[in-house]
Specification:
Layout (H helix, E strand, L loop, with lengths): L14 H9 L10 E2 L5 E2 L8 E2 H18 L11 H12 L7 E3 L3 H14 L6 E5 L4 H14 L2 E5 L9 H7 L4 E7 L11 H10 L3 E5 L18 E4 L14 E4 L43 H17 L1 H23 L5 E2 L11 E5 L3 H10 L2 E2 L1 E3 L3 E5 L7 H15 L3
Parallel strand pairs: 2-13, 5-6, 5-7, 7-8, 8-9
Antiparallel strand pairs: 1-3, 4-10, 9-10, 11-12, 12-15, 14-15
Bound molecules: pyridoxal-5'-phosphate (PLP).
The site of pyridoxal-5'-phosphate has 13 residues, from helix 4 and helix 5.
Amino acid sequence: VSDPGAAVHADVATREQAAALDANDPLREFRELFELPPDVIYLDGNSLGPLPRSTRDRLRELVEGEWGTRLIRGWDEGWIDLPVTVGDQIGGLLGAGPGQTVMGDSTSVCFYKLASAALELRPGRSEIVTDVDNFPTDRYVLEGIAQQRGLEIVWAQFDRTRGPVADEVAALVGERTALVSFSHVSYRSAFVADMAAVTRAAHEAGALMLWDLSHSVGSVPVALDADGADLAVGCTYKYLNGGPGAPAFMYVRRELLPEVGQPIWGWLGRRDPFEMAPGYESAADARRLLSGTPPVLGLAAVQQGAGIVSRAGIDRIREKGIALTELAIAIVDSRLADFGVSVASPREASCRGAHVAITHPDARALCAGLIERGVIVDFRGPDVIRLGLSPLVTRYVDVWDALEVLRALLAGS
Ligand SMILES: Cc1ncc(COP(=O)(O)O)c(C=O)c1O
């Protein structure tokens, strides 16, 4: 795999050189599409993406022009189809052909639905494989399901600065494995798993594979169909900038759809919900994954955010994500290593997403100090500072300036 942005950082030794990269950035105009407070350097778009200006306008129009005037007629004028239309829009960003992706509830609930669905498809198998560094909600949901169903979790422990690798997964799966589930991009290290190879390892044991794409969608290329993924979920409030609590998506591979069931039999997952008939019969298409009334305001916001990502193009986004993270790593190595800061993300650009984890024994206090000085980052215990570099809004000078603030903190100035 080539690392298209890898050369960009090479000789950046001054702020002016970082500014020159911004001047030549093919995505530089996209930043103007977002509301960004002038007094902060925002390196947390991988927790909550910023507000697209068009979202503010669209939501006002929806609230005043649709809800305010059309009232319940809005459902027949497009609202009811939003879970599938927005789902297909997001599927398009993930290498998923139409009809396989729908918008649901929170990522946690979507994950519960698809994990449960997978287990129904593998009766008689007693194990679920995931890793100790998977995102907490994924671990907890799987633990809850295992307890309810009397199954066992097989905990993988990968190198913490990386994540799931196929040969280690292959060693953990077997004829008892029903489900394998990992994050495609690790929320801690930013490691990008090899989706095709890990999925193959699960399939060779006869298990189904469920991916969490929360840190992937809108930041790295994903090829769900081509890589043979069975099931996937992900949130839309990070790199898709869908807003706080924006609804998550669910993907089910086309061949599995007719057999897939899910545990929350709500009316909107039923064949013709408005018949209001007795008894539950799943919809024939991906609507069978739905349960209740779709969150229309949230979906309208996701539409805007995902539209901006489509216009920028995932290849250009990826290229800049690599260049930004390369720059951050180069600055850490050259200007912060002497203060005890080290990189805890993969150094190979091809297997690193759009954030960089750096470690320092005083990471918690340093994060607080950074935030106090207007540099918004995340702390991840026990010793990680996470720098989220959102290609559509983060500038090269932001990386430079943020790390200079960190350097000043470390130097006690
Ligand atoms: C990998 C991953 N999964 C799930 C979530 C969150 O789940 P939910 O949207 O249910 O809060 C996050 C949030 O940061 C995440 O990083």
